[in-house]
Amino acid sequence: MAQKTIEYTVGRNPEMGPDGLPAPSPLEPFDIPEPELDSEHMLINIGPQHPATHGVLRLVCELDGETVVDVTPHIGFLHSSFEKLGEYRTWNQIVPLTDRMDYLAPLIYNCAYVMGVEKLLGIEVTERCKIVRVILMELDRIFGHLLWLGTTAIDVGAFTPFLYTFQERERIYRLHEAYTGARITTSATRVGGMMADLPEGWIAQLEDFLDTFPRTLAEVHRLLTNNQILIGRTQGIGVISGEDAVNYGFTGPNLRASGVAYDVRKDNPYYDYETYDFEVPIGENGDCYDRYLVRMEEMNQSISLLRQAIARLPEGPINVEDPSVSLPSKTDCMSDMESMIHHFKLITEGITGPPGDCYFPVEASKGELGMYLVSDGGPKPVRWRVRPPSFVNISVISKLARGHLIADLIMINASLDIVLGEIDR
Amino acid sequence: MSDEKKSGLDAVDEGPVPSDGSGPQAAGAPADKNDHPSVAALFERYGDAIRHHEVNAGDQHVVHVDPARNVAILGWLRDDAAHRYDLLSDVTAVDYGGGRPLQVVYQLWSIPNRMGLRVKCLLPVDALEIDSVVPLWNSANWLEREVYDLFGITFRGHPDLRRILMPHDYAEGHPLRKDFPLRGRFSRAEQTRRALNQDVDRFYIAAERAVGREPQEVTLPSQTASGPDEGSESGA
What we know:
The complex is a heterodimer.
Chain A: E1 2-6, E2 30-34, E3 42-46, E4 58-64, E5 67-74, H1 82-86, H2 95-98, H3 106-121, H4 127-155, H5 160-180, E6 189-190, E7 193-194, H6 202-224, H7 228-234, H8 242-247, H9 253-256, H10 264-267, H11 288-311, H12 330-335, H13 337-348, E8 356-363, E9 368-375, E10 383-387, H14 389-394, H15 397-401, H16 406-415, H17 420-424
Chain B: H1 8-14, E1 29-30, H2 37-46, E2 50-56, E3 60-65, H3 70-79, E4 87-94, E5 102-110, E6 115-123, E7 129-131, H4 140-151, E8 154-156, H5 188-196, H6 206-209, H7 221-225, H8 229-235
Parallel strand pairs in B: 3-6, 7-8
Antiparallel strand pairs in B: 1-2, 2-3, 4-5, 5-6
């Protein structure tokens, strides 16, 4: 019987150890007897109903013992044909479809969609609206990253961060609810503005969150970042080089972990992101651990962005003053004939604009989210296409997982930060 | 464009009316090719393959190229040192309906130069075939599968062209085509009948079914060492 020596190496980074030395493994190398089995490959089905797939994702793995030979992802279990439904709706009626795609960061999708429509129809929104949208998008970036953090920690066996992050998510849910009335299906945006202005006291509630959230984040940092189990499970796992990552279409934190500093907010800025002071964290090794570090730092940057945006939030109208785009106020509707006509025309016909097409990318929490809209001049789109970041990211999983253990496949899947509502659409 | 008013059961039956795409198809502003360095270079090098150039939504340049030469042109845009469109953001298609050609749309982004470009290929509805760009960008793999699934456009040379969002034995057609009804081609009864008659094997594609098909006897060391285990095994 052959003998196999198992040796654990933990920590590639000398700074990892508490005393500046390379962190040694707590386990001594040991020998295990290895039976000589000459076996065929196994076919293992994971999902679609499995908690470690983070949604209704089905992975069919070909295994040689415990080693992954190949993975075939199967998607489409949540397919609702949102893009087809969009062709049957006016521009504003599509907004509720968008937050059902990424239900982990719905406001980014609401904002990205109307930003695309406004670009296509040539509408310039007010300054207050722009900054409110920046606040909502950065808030939901934290919201999406927190879910990823909690569930990833669970996947490596750490239960406490899950409770911490979900407690913080609950506070963001309350902020959603205070503004939009809904916790997940926010539908907060309208073409040319928002459904309403921020309610009184909302900014104070947000500031309260910003004051206390960094403490929780620091605690999670302390629990996980130097944790030898996390390091052993993530360093050197699922490595992809920067060149490959671009070729495979990676965007967002996954791409930046491979050392490519591509962030739509910096490279193709919208809503004056170039005037905000923030850093784009990048990794070096492109493995699961760097993806973890990049997202942790992005949350810090989002906190800073939120503070800057609150500081420059101006007074003024939130909707554009254009009767062919924004609904008139209820008071005007009831007292002024012309406003009532505008209201009636907007509700029954919808907004129209020039024919043409438009691709509008924004930096969502998962990566580059592109809204491609095609109009023929009518009130409904000819084609509404969402460039889904998770869809492209998850397509790489078979390349990343090949040759790793099946337990690492779970970690790789977690590190990609996918949401199935948006993959399947 | 104008919705025909329906009432009563008719409205329930048919649901809302889609945009029929009866408006103008290529509608961008006439553009100066010198506004975009890559467009000017494309006209210079592949002038005979460029069918149309327009600017949409203010500053987005769109180039329509000959579908027979898409790989050559996109490969040149990716590799040429002055352009370097290394990120293929998106591959999608647009159907305007009414027998008009389908458009395959490539969204390119150059990370080094911070520039975007949209390239379109028009395919007549009776010849929906175009060369795959997977050899250039691996990101096109799933994106082209999605276009094949939802529009029925075949990508020649694609390594694994099967349906992706719809079930792989879906028989009703390609849902995002304008002639596809919102609620599917089959009746609810037919859809239910098909769902109930599914074979378990259909959940695995052919490549997966080939793995580990042959049953095989594996003798574990513990079994050879102790005899009495056999009795407990038959009982379990």
